[in-house]
Amino acid sequence: MSRVWLFSTLLLACSGAASAAETTLFDGTQPISIVHDKNATVSLAAQMLSDDLKALTGQPAKVSQRLSDCAQVCVVIGQFDAPVVTKLAKAAGVDPLALKGAWERYGRVAFTHQGKTYVLVYGSDRRGTIYGVTDLSRELGVSPWEWWADVKPRRVSRLTFDGAPRQSKAPSVQYRGIFLNDEDWGLEPWAGKTLEPEVGNIGPKTYKRVFELMWRLKANTLWPAMHINTVQFYGNKANPKLADDYAIVMGTSHAEPMARNNLREWDEARNGPFNFKVNRDKILDYWRTRLKETARDENIYTVGLRGLHDGPMQGADTLEARKDVLQSVIGLQRDLIRSTFRKAPETVPQAYVLYHELQEAYDAGLKLPEDVTLMWADDNYGYVRRLSNAEERKRSGGSGVYYHLSYWGRPHDYLWLGTTHPALIHAEMQKSYALDARRIWIVNVGDIKPIEYLTEYFLDLAFDADRFAEDPRDHLTKWAAEQFGPEQATPVADLMMGYYDLAFERKPEYMGFSETEPVTPVTESDFVKPDGEKAQARLKAYADLVARAEAVANTLPSDRKSAFFEMILYPVRGAANLNSRKLNLDLANLYARQGRASANAYVAKAKAAHQALVADTATYNGLENGKWNHMMDMAPRKLPVFLEPIWPQWSVSPEKGCAAAVSGGWWNDENALTFVTGQPRSRVIELFSRDTEARDWSLKVTGDSLKISDTSGRLVTGNGFEQRLTVSYDGGASTGPIDIACGGKTVRVYTKLLPAPAQTAFIENDRRVVIPLASQSGEDWERLDGLGHSGNSLRSRLTLPTRATASGTPLTYSFTTYSAVGGTVSVVALPVHALNPATGLKVAVQLDDGPLHVMDFATAGRSDVWRGNVLINKAVETWSFKKLNAGVHTLKLWPLDPGVVLDYAEVKLDGADKYYGVVEASTH
C-alpha cells in the first residue's frame, strides 16, 4: 500500500524514463536484489533496506556492488557520481549530476531496462543517499519506530510504490539533531544491563541503534550522552568510527567545548583545577588532543567555556570577568583549530550555545567571529529565550536553537513522560525559523523513550519548514495512522491532544506542587482549592483519556500492542495515575476536614493509583521478552512527587445523616446553583453521608428546565457514601428548588435564575468573566491554533514594530456583568520571551472608557516570577478597579511589542472563588 501522503518533502520531477505511477517491487515470488556503490555508509544503508525488505516479504534481498548481480527487480543505490549510478542514468532518463554540490538531496526513479525493473536511488552526498533509502523503506511500510518502539513491519504478499521520477528538496535546517541527556534513569541502565552488558554502559550497540533511528527521522547531528555515570563517547574508540560510518555529525553541549566531556575526561587530581586563569596550558593541551583525534571526522565544535559540568566557569566570579575569559578562550580555540586542522577556522563548523551565563556574557558585549553559529536556547521549558536581531541575522554563521523536551533542574524536572505540547513546539520553532534560526536545531530528548512522537515532530519541522503550514493535530493524526492504522488515527490523535492539553495546564511531574534546587516537600495541590471541583474535573478528564486509550488498545492486533503501550498507553495511564494518587489524597484530606464518610474511600483510590503505576512500569520493562528492561523508571531522581506517600486513615465523624455540597462548598445563599436565562449550563451537587450507615435517597425538582443525572440511589460503601449529581439547565424559565430526601431528612438546594443578558459575546459566570482572546482577530495578530489554556492563542506579529503608545485598531470584546462591585482585570499570556529584550513584551489594555493600562509580560533570568510562570504555562498581569456597575462593558487591547502571545482575559469580581487554571468561559 502506497504511503506517498507521508512525504510532503518530495517533489515530482519530469523525466524521459519509462516508468509507471505504481511500480511493483515484490509480487510474492520474484527475488529482489540491491546493488550499491563502494561507500561504507551506502553499504550500511543497502543492508538496512535488505533487512526491511526481509521483514516485509520474508525474503532477504541479495546485496552486492555489481550491476551484473541484479535480479529481475533491482534497487540501485549510490551517490550521484558513483559508477553504478552513472551506468544506469541514461537508461533511467535522469541526470544525477544535477544534484552535484547540493546538501542532503536525493533523486529516485523506477524504470525498465533490458527486461528488468530498476529502482535507482542517487544522492547528492552520503546522507542524501541515505534519505532516499529510508524514504523508500517508509513508503513501503516501515515506520521509523520499527525498532525503538516495536512498530513491527507487517508481512505482505505484494509491495508497490510510486515509481515516478522525483527529487527531494534540501532540508530546511542544515544540521538537525538530538541530545541524549539525563540518561541516568533510563538509557544508561538499559544499555548497560540489557542491550550491551559486555560494555556495561552506553556503547557502540546503543549508538548503532540511535544512528539508525536518526537516519529514519532524517536527523544528522548527535550530542551524545554525557553524565558522570556514562562512559564518554570518545572513551570507546568504536563510537566515533561508527558515527563516521553512519555519516553522523557529532557535536557537544554548551558544557562541553571542543568535543570534550569534562565531567568524565578532566581529572583534577592529575591535571589541576579546570580554571583557565590559572591552568591555561593544560586546558589548551587537553583541547588540542581531542582536535587531533577528531581531525578526520565531521564535527560541529562548541566554543566557549563553562565549569566541569553544567555549572558556572571556575575562577571568574563576575559577569565582566567571565566575558573577558571567554573572549580570550574563543580566540585561542580558533587558533587551535587553525594549527591542528591546517585550515582557516571559518571553514570548520563551530557553535556558541547561548545558555545561562554564556548568553549573559554575549549580551554584555562578548565578540564572536561571524562564522560561529549563534545557537540560542530555550529556557528549558519550551520557550526560546532570544533570537537573532536584524544585525545578527547578517552573520555568515547564522543561528540555531537548542530546545528541551526533557529537563533536569529548577524549578522542577520533567524527565519521566513526554508532555510538551505540540502546539508550543510548533509556535516557538516557527518563530525561530521565521527569524532565520536555520543552521542548527538540537532537541534534548532525554532517554528517547517515551518521547518518541515529540522527537519526530520536532525533527519533521526541522527537515521541512513547509510543515509549519500544517496544524499540529493533523501531523499527529498522520503519525498515528502510520503507527496504528488509519482507523485508529483520529481516536489516537484526539486522546493524545487531550493528554497534552492536561499536561499544559500542569505537567504530571509538577503535581507535588514542590520545586527542586533546593528540593521542597510535596504540598496540597491548588486543584483541590477551594472546594475540590477542579480536582474532580481533572480526575474525570484523565479517566476519560484512559478509557479511550484502553478502548483503542483492545482493538489493536498483537503486533501493535507493545508499540501502543510504549508510546501511548503507558504515558496516558502514567500521567492519569500520578494525578489520581495526588488529587485523591488531597480530596481525602479536604473531605475529612468536612466530616465526610468518603475520606477513606479517596485514600483507597489514591493507593490503587500508586499500585497501578508500579504495575505499569514493571509491564513496560518486561515488554518484548525483556527488551526494554531497566528503560522505564517511574521516579527519576527519587523526587518527592514520585515517592509513595504515607496513607492516612480517618475515624468516622461523630455527626450523623446526609448533607449536600454545591460545587463542593457548603450551601448558603451565595452558593446556590446559579444559571442565566437562556444559557444552558451544568452544575454539580455532591450528596454525602457523614457516617458509614447505608442510606437511600431520592430527589425531586420543581419545574422542567432542570434535568438531574440521577433521581434516586443509595449511599453505601461501594460508592464511598456519596453521590455526585450533575444538574443540567436547558435555558428555560422554570427551575428549582431541588429537594433531596436522605436519611429521614430533606436537604434543599436553591437555584438562582439571572435575567437574560444583553447581546454581548461573554457574560458573568459565578462572579467572573472569562474571555478567550483568540475569539477576535486583527491585522496586528496571528492566531496560534490549539495553543493555550483557552484552546487557541493570539501572537502579535513578529514583524510588528515596537510602539510607544496604543495605535491602530484594537481587539475589542464586549461582556455583561450582573454584580455592581469591585474586582480585577487580568490578562493571561504565555510566558514567551521578548524578541527585543530592551523593550519587553507589552500590550495596552482599556476597560470601558477608563485609563490605558500597559502590561509587560517579560521576565528577567530565573526570577521567582519566571519560575512560577513556567510551572503553569502562564504570565499574568493584573490591575484592580473599585467598582464595575452591572451591565454591558468593553475590553480593548493593543499590541506594543512583537511576539506577545495572549491566551485569555479574566474580569474577576469581588467574592469570586479562586481556582487553579482557567474557568470555563460563559458565552452568549
Automatic annotation (TrEMBL):
It holds the Pfam family GH115_C. Residues 762-914 form the Gylcosyl hydrolase 115 C-terminal domain. InterPro entries: GH115, GH115_C, GH115_sf, Hex-like_dom2. Coiled coil: none annotated. GO terms for molecular function: hydrolase activity. GO terms for biological process: carbohydrate metabolic process. Keywords: Hydrolase, Plasmid, Signal. Residues 1-20 form the signal peptide. This is Gylcosyl hydrolase 115 C-terminal domain-containing protein. It comes from Asticcacaulis excentricus (strain ATCC 15261 / DSM 4724 / KCTC 12464 / NCIMB 9791 / VKM B-1370 / CB 48).
